[in-house]
């Protein structure tokens, strides 16, 4: 009997001290979308050639991108590039850029072409690229378009890396970026499979909006479904604290975000 009571007491102690798998899932979900937000800011900037004439060749798209990207990252000279035909190799060293990009360091290769329907397609790869406290291995295909003054990019991603909290993760899927070049805001909608040190999951992102120097805007949400079909929903209200809830366990809580001040 004493052994049984001791085991029960230990179980209670573990449950009382642990924060639970739901909170871990909420953190994983926010980590994956934080990396995607940084990645999308970077890939959108490299692919923003949608205003170029339809007659522009892939080589001309690449040439224009070299000029534009070099002027958009600060301080002057932090971004260098080498163009070979339609391929550009960018080398960034502690750069600050649009959409809240800070401390961007790494080498990225971008291959430019015209997509069906007139959009600009850019295949972007890079290993160990650092930005906004995240480290990313990028393997993305971006198709950028513009209609009625609104710029969007469809991104197919198969990447890995670590987020601002240091957790390692992989991402495979697709998302759509809408970006406001004046206010420097990015809105993400998409679905991807996420693998972390804890478990694999599917992540559905709805209206996640992040502007330069701010926390995620109110109205965005992430639905994170684990391999065991446990569903955790994370919602944002514009502050540095997000709310999460678990449908399976009827539990809820909060998650402190790493945001603002970019």
Key traits:
13-stranded antiparallel β-sheet, disordered N terminus, alpha+beta, 3 helices, 262 residues, 13 strands
Describe this structure in words.
This protein is of the alpha+beta class and 262 residues long. The chain has one domain (20-256). Helix content is 22%, strand content 48%. The protein contains three helices and 13 strands, in the order H-H-H-E-E-E-E-E-E-E-E-E-E-E-E-E. It has a 13-stranded antiparallel beta sheet. Strand 12 and strand 13 (251-256) form a beta hairpin. The protein starts with a helix and ends in a 6-residue tail after the last strand. Mean pLDDT is 85; it is low at 1-18.
Q: Whole-number average pLDDT?
A: 85
Number of helices: 3
* Overall domain count: 1
| Beta strands, count | 13
Radius of gyration: 20 Å
Low-confidence stretches: 1-18
Distance between the termini: 58 Å
Element string (H = helix, E = strand): HHHEEEEEEEEEEEEE
Counting helices, strands and paired strands, the structural category is alpha+beta
Across the major sheet, the strand order is 1-2-3-4-5-6-7-8-9-10-11-12-13
- Helicity, as a percent range: 10-25%
Question: How do you describe this structure in short?
Answer:
By secondary structure, the protein is an alpha+beta fold. Helix content is 22%, strand content 48%.
Indicate the topology:
Layout: H1 2-17, H2 21-46, H3 58-72, E1 79-84, E2 87-95, E3 104-114, E4 120-131, E5 134-147, E6 150-162, E7 168-180, E8 185-196, E9 200-211, E10 221-226, E11 231-235, E12 241-246, E13 251-256
Antiparallel strand pairs: 1-2, 2-3, 3-4, 4-5, 5-6, 6-7, 7-8, 8-9, 9-10, 10-11, 11-12, 12-13
């Amino acid at each position: 009997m004493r052994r049984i009571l001791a085991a029960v007491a230990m179980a209670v102690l573990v449950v009382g001290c642990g924060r639970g798998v739901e909170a871990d899932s909420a953190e994983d979900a926010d980590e994956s979308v934080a990396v995607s937000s940084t990645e999308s800011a970077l890939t959108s900037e490299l692919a923003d050639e949608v205003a170029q004439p339809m007659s522009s060749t892939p080589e001309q798209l690449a040439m224009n991108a070299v000029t534009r990207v070099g002027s958009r990252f600060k301080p002057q000279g932090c971004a260098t590039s080498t163009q070979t035909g339609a391929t550009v190799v960018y080398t960034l060293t502690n750069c600050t850029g649009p959409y809240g990009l800070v401390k961007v360091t790494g080498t990225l290769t971008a291959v430019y072409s015209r997509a069906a329907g007139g959009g600009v397609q850019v295949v972007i790869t890079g290993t160990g690229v650092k930005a906004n406290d995240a480290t990313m291995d990028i393997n993305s295909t971006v198709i950028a378009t513009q209609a009625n003054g609104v710029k969007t990019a469809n991104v197919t991603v198969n990447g890995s890396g670590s987020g601002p909290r240091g957790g390692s993760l992989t991402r495979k899927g697709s998302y759509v970026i809408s970006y406001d070049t004046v206010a420097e805001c990015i809105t993400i909608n998409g679905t991807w499979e996420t693998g972390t040190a804890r478990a694999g999951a599917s992540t559905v992102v709805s209206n996640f909006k992040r502007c330069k120097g701010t926390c995620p805007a109110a109205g965005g949400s992430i639905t994170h479904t684990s391999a065991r079909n446990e569903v955790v929903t994370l919602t944002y209200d514009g502050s540095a604290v997000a709310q999460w809830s678990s449908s399976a366990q009827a539990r809820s809580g909060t998650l402190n975000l790493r945001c603002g001040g970019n």
